[in-house]
Amino acid sequence: MKNNFKDHKLSTILRRGLNIIMLMAFVAASVVGLWLQNSYQRQQAFSVTGDYIAHYMDKIDVEFTINDYVDQWMNYAIDGEDTQPKENYFDNDHLKRLVIGNQDYLSELSVVDKNGIVAYSSNPELLGFDIRDSEHTRPFLALLEGEEAYADPLYPSPYNDSFTMAYLGRTFRDKSGFMLFGINEDAYNTRNLEEIDIATVDVKIGITGFLINCDLNKKITAITATMAEAAGEDFAATEVLPENEGEIKESVAELYGKKCYVTAKREHDFYVIAAYPVDEADQFKLQNNILFVVLYFMILASFFIAFFLLLKKLVIKEIESTHVSLKKITDGDLDEKVDAGGSLEFEELSQGINETVDKLKDMIKAEEQRVRDELENARNIQISAVPGNFPPYPEDERFGLFASMNTAEAVGGDFYDFFMTDENTLVMVMADVSGKGMPAALYMMRAKTLIRTYAEEGLPVEEVAALANQKLCEDRSAEMFVTAWIGFLDLKTGVISYVHAGHTFPVIVSPKGAESVDAVFVKQKINMVLGGLKKAKYVRQEITLKPGDSIFLYTDGVTEAKAVSGDMYGEDRLLTLIKEKTGTMGAGDRNEFCRAACGMVYEDVSAFYSGAEQYDDITMMWVRL
Hints:
42% helix, 14 helices, alpha+beta
């Protein structure tokens, strides 16, 4: 996983990660949400059918209906404030006519006096009946003791136990007795069936849902009118019916060709079933699901966008700011300061980075100082390794000599050397190591030591070069070489025996007149550099200097010095300078002349590359007879 993100920015990684998380969260939440919505849809459908059954049970409550009817009759007909006096009902025939006119509700109508005796009745068999004489009517004594209403369920009639009768009692306002309303079982059941039919026939659940009422034998007693023809006489889907009285059962079943949400309840002597077709209950399910998914996606997307923007502001922006500062620091700008805020962690990170960089700057300064000190020591060692006292042989009036070395770095790879092997032989060495800095300086020291050692043994110049080359070639770890010009000057004859090992051409300067000179390069055979090839052969060559002549030795730092424009100083410029300047320098002290000649060349070269960096070490030696 790491390798998949290693080439991406944190913002890209977080955006991709959040997109994946959002997609996974969306899928998971959608599945759960749709499941919950479907469960809620099912629950709502059963809630609707359950509400219809509850309302249905209220509508078919015959006892409630009869009680309500009796209360209204008492208030508006028999004993109301604006009605005829109750004495108008103290008439048996009048009571009989009232029963006949209200036979849907009444079977008997009686007046009980304050002693509990039936004084008037539509049923002659009850006249003079003491309500204390029957267990069925005895509870009605409470109406003579302060209660205003009492009703009992169906019981055997007190005067004829072959049929059942239910009584309802309502007191007169003056507490002088009460009215006793009676309804027999047949009238009660008839009224009950009428209530059931009225409550069922016109009921629709939704548009096509329906209600069914059936007895305990599964015979349909009432059904919504639109389903009467399809239902038949018997209710066949017995699996939807509960087993126990008062129990409610919810299920999904097919009724009369329609898959329905079904709620069924069992009463003591009947079942009531409410059915709501699934296709109607779920008609807006697809639209609701689509709306839910769209809204949820919008909410989830808004949340993740807000979260990402917050994350970008508080984290990614600060990380990018830190990255920019670190890039500047790694590019070398150690004065750059990290200033990431937004949280305590970034404040601490910024402080830690800045403290680290400050410590690094201190370490770099200390290391630079250490290196400068070491280079200065190396420079001092290198300078001390070449002759530095001028004039070197003030007592010898046969020649004058001056040499100088100006390195491009603290230490360099150029070197010169001169020494007497005997009273008449001056050895002159001008060399350039292929490199700069400390490695070249160390290699220079080794080459110089080898040349001096073999020359002081009295060997001819070609053997000195050959042996030094062999020793340098044996040490291949350095991977360097040396260009060199080694000459032995015989001060008695002016003959210089020399080896040219890949170095620059010396300049021979000869007086031409009073204030003019002739300057030419010594065209000579060039041998292999020292340290390049172990079996290299070196050929001795000779030139002769006459009194007044000079030889000028130098490294390529002179002729290859570069100006700002990129032009090189060149050999022609060097010859022209020598011809034009040295003729007028006079023929005084030879050593001073050599010093002045070298100084003249260095000043001209320095002026040429003024404004540009010194490209290479500049080393020179001037010898005059």
